[in-house]
Structures are given as C-alpha cells and as structure tokens.
Amino acid sequence: MSQTPSPSAPKLEGNMFLFTKPALLNIQQHGDMGVTRPQRPFGYAEHIRAVPLTVSEIAAASRHYPVIFTDDKTPQPLAVVGIIDDQNLFVDDAGNWEDNTYIPGYLRRYPFALANDKESGPDGPRMALIVDEAYEGIQSGSDMPFFENGNPSPAMEQAMDFCKNYEKDRMVTLQFATELAKHELLAEQVAQFTPDGAKDPMPFAKYTSIEEKKLQELDDEKFIALRKSNMLPVLYAHLMSMGNWRNLMERRARRYNLTGEAVLKPLPKS
Q: How far is CA 227 from the centre of its chain?
C-alpha cells in the first residue's frame, strides 16, 4: 500500500473491469477516507453479463453459473450472470446479491485491486493497492477507514492480503489457460432454449467451452497428463456447469414475467 506518492511509484496503465476511477491508495489523497457499506452493495455489478474467475473458483461457481472461457487462445474462465440484456440476474432491485450463491472473488475484492510495477525492487516485484474512487461506499468518516494514526488500518491490511492471495490465484489461472490452450479442447458453442409452445430449440448465446467429444477422444498419454496436472476436476466442473444455461434462462423469465418466445428477446428499453 502506498503512503507517499513518488516518481518511482507504480503507474496505472490500461483498463480494469468495473473500475471507473482507479487510483493508487495513499495517505495524502485518502487519509481521511474509507469504506462504508453502501445502500446498494452490488449496484456496481448490476449491469454485467459475466465475471472473471480464477481456476480455484470454478468448482464452486459451477454450482450456480455457466462457466465459460473468453476464447480458445488465452482461455480465461468467466461466470455468466446475465443473458440477452446487460442485466446481472443475481443482483436484485435493492442491489443485493442473491443469498446462498457463490460470489466471485473479483467482486469480493472490489473496490480494491493490486497494481504491479514493471520494475522490481530488492525484494521482487513491487505492488500497491488500487481503489476505485468512483465506488459509492468510499467516503470521509467511514466505518472502515483506510488509515489509522498514519498507518494502514487493520481493514486495509486485510484488503491487501486478500488482493495478494487473489493475485496469486490469478497467476495460477494464467498458467492454467496456457496449458489448456495446448490441448486444443476448446470450441465455440451455442446455447439453446425451447420456449413454451415452440417445437424446436432456439439459440440465444455463443460461448467458448470444452468440447466434451474432444476430451473423450484424447489418447491415453494426453489424458493422463491432464490428470497429473490436476486439470481434470476443473474441466469436469466446467462441463457440469453447462446445465446452468437453462436455469439462467428460467431465472430471467421469472424475474421479468416473460413467457413463450419473449424469454429470448431483449427487454424493451425504458
């Protein structure tokens, strides 16, 4: 966590999903500020369709969401939370996440993240804590201050620890993606749904996932290699999650009281 800005401090580059106004947390800018739980805790995530996952989360996420991959070259896992419209079907009108469903770590660490410096110090790569200043819960006189007595507060130390662990998981996920791409098991798929009254299933989403037939046809050597690398449980959890496409469609139908083919059409713009 940065307490004093300096010319050698890590610089923010590129975009971060959901971060509107990222800034390096430091005592000069944020000394009297902190985080208070907002009235709509997950309001910042109510208009998204997917959330990044780390590989260690896939098994837990697969119980509630379709788990897909970004592409077949650098296949990063995603939990699908919305379809057809930019509406997260797990965030209700009050901005709360649905009870008893897995909340991805990317969202649990928000509004914080780590910035990695391109240059390394004597102890390895330097890291600094980023905060999204646009987050509704950031304010002066908060319940959880960023700093106490000129030092990071216990709450911010916990946030840093969580972000460090998440970063480790993210790096493992990048390695997983590299290895998965080598096996050429991924392909573009089409999700389909048969509305009430329709004779045939109708497509509603394209996504990248493991092609089960390719997995079954792997020769023994490659299959054993997957098993030894502990990738098989992850791949099977991913395949099992495909059953959640129907659950997601039914969830959308219930939420917006949609019937027949209307369940496959975008909502009218208000």
A: 26
Report CA dihedral (53, 59, 61, 65) to the nearest 10 degrees.
110
Average pLDDT, the chain: 90
Look at residue 123 in the predicted model and tell me its pLDDT. 53
* DSSP state for residue 40 in the 8-state scheme: S
The Cα 174–Cα 80 span in angstroms is 19
- The first and second tokens of residue 57, run together, are 């989360």
Reduce the DSSP state of residue 97 to 3 states and report it: strand
Q: What predicted TM-score, i.e. pTM, was given to this entire model?
A: 0.89
Which tokens is 119 given? 């240059």
Report CA dihedral (10, 35, 97, 100) to the nearest 10 degrees. 100
Instruction: Using the predicted structure, report yes or no on whether residue 225 has a pLDDT greater than 70.
Output: yes
Going by the DSSP 8-state scheme, the letter that residue 32 receives in this structure is: T
pLDDT exceeds 50 at position 199: yes
Enclosing H/E stretch for 168 = helix 154-182
CB-CB contact of 144 with 34 (8 Å): yes
- Band the pLDDT of 197: cuts 50, 70, 90: confident
Q: Which token pair is 111?
A: 């509004």
> Using CA atoms, how far apart are residues 253 and 41, in angstroms rounded to an integer?
24
For tokens 């908060």, the residue is 142
| pLDDT, tens digit (0-9, with 9 covering 90-100), for 163-186 | 999 999 999 999 999 999 999 999
How far is Cα 109 from Cα 107, in angstroms, rounded to an integer? 5
